[in-house]
């Protein structure tokens, strides 16, 4: 797929950018990568899941599980929605970010299983109201989860067409260096946001095992990813990026 606008015969259809098309100077999603039937079904399923989980709240012993699954559904919805709204040239069905690899699925399965098993066998561990400690941990977790989602969404909105779910190893024509908004405070806000969202979710679930596993796995993942990504950012933007990275920190501990 070409990454530069292509001039075609028709007056209306100006060209192709990454996976999007430009019509009268405005970028639209590329229809072949956006099967509307599947996309609408996924949206319906996510909305339905949120409704069912809310409806089940009065009947669930450990309600934090419902809220966690609602937060996961909102996260995946926002990945697609924000891409479609602020980065339409790159939106595809995969923007829901369900195809995130085996480690991602395993982590959520581990978190869900741990929360469920412990809530059955050790119900007192799993009550936010059991002690001041469990109350503090779960409230801190919820605050981190909300903050993480906010920072991630703000990053995607601010970066616009410079944001892509895959790390770019060649520069697109619509890719410029973003240093304003949330990028003026954090160098990798979407990674910062997801890191704290995920750790917050495990505090909220009062999941000691998954919290430890998430911390190690996510730290290693983002540490490697940031190093890889910055090699290319330096190639694309040279001194401008070097100067920016001296001025603005990553924010994620020890990276
Ligand atoms: C998944 S996005 C993550 C962006 C950023 N690392 C963050 O955490 O907000 C990955 C893409 O963003 C691009 N990118 C990262 N930082 C950028 C910046 N400050 N300005 C423009 N593009 C950036 C990278 O080239 C990569 O293709």
UniProtKB/TrEMBL annotation:
What EC number is given for this enzyme? 2.1.1.100
Please report the record's description of how this protein sits within the membrane. Answer: Multi-pass membrane protein
Which UniProt keywords are listed? Answer: Endoplasmic reticulum, Membrane, Methyltransferase, Pheromone response, S-adenosyl-L-methionine, Transferase, Transmembrane, Transmembrane helix
Where does it sit, as one GO cellular component term?
endoplasmic reticulum membrane
- What InterPro entries does the record tag this protein with? ICMT_MeTrfase, PPMT_MeTrfase
| Catalyzed reaction equations | [protein]-C-terminal S-[(2E,6E)-farnesyl]-L-cysteine + S-adenosyl-L-methionine = [protein]-C-terminal S-[(2E,6E)-farnesyl]-L-cysteine methyl ester + S-adenosyl-L-homocysteine
- The entry's protein name is Protein-S-isoprenylcysteine O-methyltransferase
Q: Which organism is it from?
A: Lachancea meyersii CBS 8951
